[in-house]
Amino acid sequence: MTRPSVRLLAWATLVGTFVLNLQGTLVRATGSGDGCGPNWPLCHGNVVPVDPGFSTLMEYGHRQLTIAVGLLGLVLLVQAVRHRRRHPGVLAAVLVAAAFFAAQALVGRITVVWELTGDSADPLRALILPTHLVNSFSQLAALALAVLYAGPRAPGRWRMRERAGTAGILLVSAVAFYGLVFTGGISALGDLYAPADSVAEGAALDFSPDAPWPARVRLTHPVLAMVLAFVLLGGAAAVPGLRRTWRVTRLAAWLGGVYLLQLVVGTWNLLALAPLPLSALHQALAMVAFALFAVLAAVALGGGDEGSMSSAAPERAGRAPAADQAD
After folding, report:
1. Could you give the C-alpha distances from 104 to 108, 173, 282, 287, in angstroms and in order?
2. DSSP code, position 304
3. pLDDT per residue over 41-95, tens digit each?
């Protein structure tokens, strides 16, 4: 299998995983998580549901797409093993993605069998769903790295010591990003623990001493969103390693644009009391931002486009044919 074929397969798995995660958001938002009852992997005790309703179709469809994405990932893993010498970075990324996929399936089974779906307001659900999100975002990021390392300008070895400042900023950003994803999962369940008809009423309930802990914790989500914005912007301005090359600069610009758009949509979603279209868009932008962050981190730490901004353009123009031939 050629380099373009491996990369195309990685892209297909990445897109399939993105759609799968977005579909999971729709399953939760429509209360269809219990559509197959407390049965997994069967649906109401059957391989194929009999006379299914809307909730059953939503949940069963989600499971079938999970199988399809899993098979696609298995093919990618086999090809990554076969071509590990040509694409060592792809194999590492796919192995990480496979581990998170397995964890995702386990958490999904727990969610269904323990009946932490539908209208369940069990406090344990406020831990399981965020864990589910963290797994899905991590799998998506790993697949984005597989696409990157299957490309013609794959980054080299991560230079953690040589780029300690960059690594430090990226580490802090990663911790904040994961915190944002986790609290976002809690925030998505907010109406189950403290239903409200307005933002003001919801805030009052969240600050109430009698409010359940998931309702109080969800307040940290918008706060973390702002903190991460300052960390990303401040780090990009303070650390030269994050703005040394054209490639890193372009990735940082894309990440900044998507993240700021996500902040706008998230604020709109909050003020509108989380209608389904806005919630889905917010989730989609969050996944894109997380994948871009993973790619940016790999390029910033591993190189792969080392010319400075002042010299990169002339140098590339003078050596374009040779560079293309090398790729």
Report:
1. 6, 23, 21, 16
2. S
3. 889 889 999 888 999 999 999 999 999 999 999 999 999 999 888 878 999 999 9
Cα separation, 101 vs 74, in Å, equals 11
> By the 8 A CB rule, do 243 and 308 touch?
no
**196 contacts 305 by C-beta, under 8 angstroms:** no
Looking at per-residue confidence, does 307 or 141 come out higher?
141
Q: What are the pLDDT digits (tens) for 223-233?
A: 889 888 887 77
The pLDDT of residue 155 is above 50: yes
Claim to verify: residue 233 and residue 119 sit in the same structural domain: no
Does residue 244 surpass a pLDDT of 80? no
CA dist., res. 73 & res. 93, Å (int): 12
Question: Domain check: are 132 and 233 in the same one?
Answer: no
Query: Looking at 154, 182, 197, which one is the last position of a domain?
Result: 154
Taking 3-state DSSP, the helix, strand and coil percentages for the chain, each rounded to the nearest 5, stand at 75, 0, 25
Using CA atoms, how far residue 25 sits from 136, 149, 210, 243, in Å, is: 11, 29, 29, 35
The C-alpha atoms of residue 167 and residue 161 are separated, in whole angstroms, by 8
pTM of the predicted structure, to 2 decimals? 0.87
Q: Residue 322: inside a domain, yes or no?
A: no
Residue 46 backbone dihedrals phi, psi, to 5 degrees: -120, 155
**Residue pair 136/182 in contact by the 8 Å Cβ criterion:** no
CA-to-CA dists, residue 212 to 192, 220, 291, angstroms: 10, 14, 33
DSSP 103-141: HHHHHHHHHHHTT--TT---TTHHHHHHHHHHHHHHHHH
SS3 label, residue 234: helix
Of residues 9, 2, 158, the one with CA closest to residue 94: 9
